[in-house]
Write the structure tokens for this entry.
Amino acid sequence: MTTTVIPTEVAIVGAGPSGLLLAHLLAARGVASVVVEARSEEYVGSRIRAGILEHSTVDLLRRAGLGDRIAEVGDEHRGIYLQWPGERHHIDFQEHVGRSVWVYGQTEVQKDLVAAAHARGQEIHYEAADVAVHDVTSDRPAVTFTGADGTSYRLEARVLVGCDGSFGPSRAAVPDDVRQTWERVYPYSWLGVLADVAPSTDELIYAWHPDGFAMHSMRSASVSRLYLQVPNGTDVDTWSDDRIWDALATRLGHGENGWSLEPGPITEKSVLPMRSFVQTPMRHGNLFLAGDAAHIVPPTGAKGLNLAVADVGVLAPALAELVRGGDSRLADAYSDTALRRVWRCTHFSWWMTTMLHTAGDPFDAQLQLSQLRWVASSAAGAAGLAENYAGLDIGS
Ligand code: FAS
Ligand code: PHB
């Protein structure tokens, strides 16, 4: 079978948020790229994932010309509520750090990225099979794949970027004797639901409860997004809608201080295991890793998508200087620069997770409640949470 060779400057594996945003930011700097994606455009765009954009993410998207719909349909939030039985306290990010977050689902971000890719004629090969990366330490690395049309392709580039998430080929292209990985698997998972009902709260509620953690988020004025802590290995089919709403009502304090949780039709439910994972370095030769390809955080800190954005916000200018100007200084510093924020967000996500999820240990429960009371009552404690949740400057 003949192989079609495609020359480009940057080959990107993965058309999720990190891959498409990187292609967008590179194009704005006059750098050509080609994206190879295992799934269909529709499948990638339909995955229900992140819901919160940090201040820095919104800034970057706006500067990249991707902020119009955030202004139209996004919902700016000043802060979040922390709750435990009988008490609910607002943590006001604006008051403590002068920053907000936005409720704007990852599906919306993906829509904006796909529309911009179509508008600029971005080359994306969807439904690619047998994707493999080659010669990553040479000056002509390559990605081979079988296109949806059955054609064999070889994408030859100046650099490769693995934006292929947890299960793509890029991570493993870093040799065992070069890479280092850190992982922590948490002893619980999240059961997440989408419901066609108006949110019962104006801002997100993160609730500690002896039965387990619960969270009330949202996607719009008519769609709620809620989560329940469940044991690992939970079969989602063992949780009826009534059982879900009963547990949410208990854990979120339905009936306390005049507040009530309004149930509604559940349109999607799934179980998400929770782990922290980091792989270093985020560069090997002419292979760079960004987003979930390099790190995974438990969603308690709303960092996954925002970290992916921060990675490519640092990587795009670095690759432009490398590919266009032959100046490798930013590219040489990429891994260390990106990992500062990766470890900060990994710690914050671990801190939020271990503070809010019960694992049956009464001593831990007392420590968690003490920590929650301190964060809710101390300006220093609240400012620490606010600074991390609303997000630090990209590149810091
Ligand atoms: P992605 O995983 O989004 O994209 C990687 C892309 O690479 C995918 O489209 C995949 O199909 C493609 N790919 C994989 N293997 C390939 C191959 N061999 N060849 C070509 N392409 C390949 N974050 C939050 O902040 N809040 C949340 O609530 C939240 N919920 C989540 C729920 C789930 C089930 C998951 C899996 C993640 C969740 N996340 C959440 C994290 C999520 O939002 C990620 O951080 C975000 O998608 C990262 O974007 P990417 O790095 O682009 O990775
Ligand atoms: C969501 O709305 O999906 C969401 C919000 C905040 C989180 C995690 C998920 O910490």
